[in-house]
Amino acid sequence: MRSKILFLIPLLFSFIPSHSQREESTVKGITYLNRPARNINLLPDSIRIEFPDQKALVIFEMNNVTKNSGVIEHFGDSLKGWLQAIRRSSSDLESPKRAEITIKENGEKKIIIYVAPDVKTYLTVKENAVTELLPPGWEISVRAKDYKTYVYAQEFSALVQVANQNFTLAVEKIKEDIRMNPLRRKTLKSRIILKEDKVQYSEMKRKIASDFIVGTASAGLGYLGDKFYPELNLNVTLRFGGRFDPNNNKVTFSYNNLFLAEKSTDGSYNTHINSFISVAWNKNLNYRHEHPLWIGIGAGYLIQNRGDYFKGNTFKFFISKDVGNVSITPELYMTDDFKKSLLGIKFNYTF
Fold first, then answer.
1. How many CB atoms lie within 10 A of CB 319?
2. Distance between CA atoms of 234 and 230, rounded to whole angstroms?
3. Which of 304, 308, 312 has the alpha carbon at shortest distance from 334?
4. Mapping DSSP to helix (H, G, I), strand (E, B) and coil, where does residue 47 land?
5. Whether the Cβ atoms of residue 192 and residue 172 lie closer than 8 Å to each other
6. Residues whose CB falls within 8 Å of the CB of residue 325, separated by 6 or more in sequence, listed in order
7. Residue 269 burial (C-beta neighbours within 10 Å; 0-12, 13-18, 19+)
8. What is the 8-class DSSP label of residue 30?
9. In this predicted model, what pLDDT tens digit does every residue of 85-144 receive, in sequence order?
10. pLDDT given at position 72
11. To the nearest 10°, the Cα dihedral for 166, 171, 172, 173?
């Protein structure tokens, strides 16, 4: 989903009159795709601006629409410059084409123009009636550090008209909405229709960053000092979402039970349960991919001391790495009031 094809999704819209009451009331009988089929990129804020008169649309996806609103406000001027470069490099502006524009941090721009190998028209049919017509046209994908932009128009001349539109109207509408309802950790998904130099319709939706409380149990095998031991844990995890979602940070509180076997004076072995209360903070370092990579750090305190393995105040410090449901945790134990240290490692499976 992160390949270049993401930037070439045919996010076209319909020019067929709709019979839906909602669509007729919001866009006066002309239907549009409510949302792109996919995101251009995994960015939190999405601003979709439609131009019915030009049969065109522009979609911005941003890290932070508040900080990057200037990109939208001055997009017309940027588009004019790109269209001039495309016009100079292409002799055929009538046929549908797509262009990829990469903007580097130093301001340098790289433009690649493709001739569409297959010209397709997409139809959506509902109850034996055509509700959406997706005609072939010009597509421009823009990639920069903090934002992605997708532009569609049925004809090149319509792109020129879009470049002359007043994008400030959309920015003012967005800023007004954010002033009334600050984003904070929420993401913004908006749809704005500009027609006759005014905002004809706007829809501002927010997605709240989701937090979860998860209870789990884990069991495993550890090695501490000079012996192996089984371990059983009860865990309560608080998972925190962010503007980028999903939940890429978590705090885990654990009740750790170490079953340590010790040899008595008569030669027999007794199993003693030593219990720790620990807390760990974990970060997902692979949040843009399907499989997470959790790395965590934490500390624990001995609350139940049985046998002679630990003495006095005992703490442990650890780092952990999760591979699926299996965690690998090197540990440092400080016992006997910090006078003695022990190194250990354990492997746990979470149910």
1. 14
2. 14
3. 312
4. strand
5. no
6. 349, 350, 351
7. exposed
8. B
9. 999 888 888 888 889 999 988 888 888 888 766 666 656 677 777 655 657 888 899 999
10. 95
11. 100
Dump pLDDT digits (tens) for 184-198: 878 888 999 999 999
Give yes or no for a contact between 326 and 221, defined as CB atoms under 8 angstroms apart.
no
Backbone angles phi, psi at 178, to 5 degrees: -70, -35
* CA nearest neighbour of 163 among 53, 72, 79, 71: 79
DSSP per position, 143-164: E-SSEEEEEEESSHHHHHHHHT
Q: Contact at 8 Å (CB) between 56 and 158? A: yes
| Residue showing tokens 């079953």 | 259
Helices (H), 183-276: none
What is the rounded CA–CA span in Å between residue 15 and residue 31? Answer: 6
Neighbouring CB atoms inside 10 A of 294's CB total 19
Token pair recorded at residue 2: 């992160």
Q: Is the pLDDT of residue 311 over 60?
A: yes
pTM of the entire structure?
Answer: 0.60
Give the position of tokens 């084409």. Answer: 97
Burial 54-73 (b: 16+ CB within 10 A, else e): bbbbbbbbbbbbeebbebbb
- CB neighbourhood size of 198 (10 A): 9
Quickly state the pLDDT bin for 212 (edges 50, 70, 90).
Answer: confident
Residue 5: DSSP 8-state: G
| Residue labelled with tokens 């950790």 | 185
Compute the distance between CA of residue 316 and CA of residue 81 in angstroms, rounded to an integer. 61
Select from 97, 114, 139 the least CA-distant residue to 8.
139
Q: What are phi and psi of 290, to 5 degrees?
A: -70, -40
